[in-house]
Amino acid sequence: MKNICDWNNCDKTGDYKAPIEKDNSKKYRMLCLEHVKEFNKNWNYFSGMDDKQVIDFLKSDMVWHKPTQSFSSSDNFFKILWKNTLKDDLDKDKFRGDNSHMRQFNFDHKDIKAFSILGVSVGLKWQKIQQKFKILVKKFHPDMNSGNKKYEEKLKLITLAYTQLKNTYRKKIDT
Predict the structure, then answer these.
(1) HEC profile for the chain?
(2) Engineering a disulfide at 114: which of 45, 58, 70, 164 sits with its beta carbon 3.0 to 4.6 angstroms away?
(3) Is the whole model's pTM more than 0.70, yes or no?
């Protein structure tokens, strides 16, 4: 079934969609090629908006019109992950001593990968792992890298690697 162009007195086939409203709704009308070109030439999304509304729209468009959270918001992914990661509820007395006995344990492939991501040797003392983690967090923190997604993904990996090792060390100390 062919659509007829929805332009005044046009009997051509309407093959092209033209929005009816500015609100990104699914409402549209079908126009022929000639009339969709005319429509597009005269279309001004910002007509009827004042300068503040245009600026607000452009700012929102930078994040695909999705709500964003400041890094300090309580439900921010990184904040939750770091809070849980940095909360060091490991037995401090057991960790204070020489951890060379950790080298005798066999670490699984997830642990080996985590050591590699953090850039430390397998079986390193827990305090050294913590120090390295803190250095990496500062280096790859979104605020230090203008919100660059590349660094954000790297920081997620680093945090997950640290969490993996923290859980492993906790298990090994408790046994």
Answers:
(1) CCCECCCCCCCCECCEEEECCCCCCCCEEEECHHHHHHHHHHCCCCCCCCHHHHHHHHHHHCCCCCCCCCCCCCCCHHHHHHHHHHCCCCCHHHHHCCCHHHHHCCCCHHHHHHHHHHCCCCCCCHHHHHHHHHHHHHHHCHHHCCCCHHHHHHHHHHHHHHHHHHHHHHHHHHC
(2) 164
(3) no
> Which candidate, 144, 136, 100, 95, places its Cα nearest to that of 116?
136
Mean pLDDT of the chain: 79
For residue 15 the two structure tokens come to 């093959």
Residue position matching structure tokens 């086939």: 13
64-105 pLDDT, tens digit each: 777 665 555 555 666 666 566 555 555 444 444 445 545 556
Determine contact, residues 94/173, Cβ cutoff 8 Å.
Answer: yes
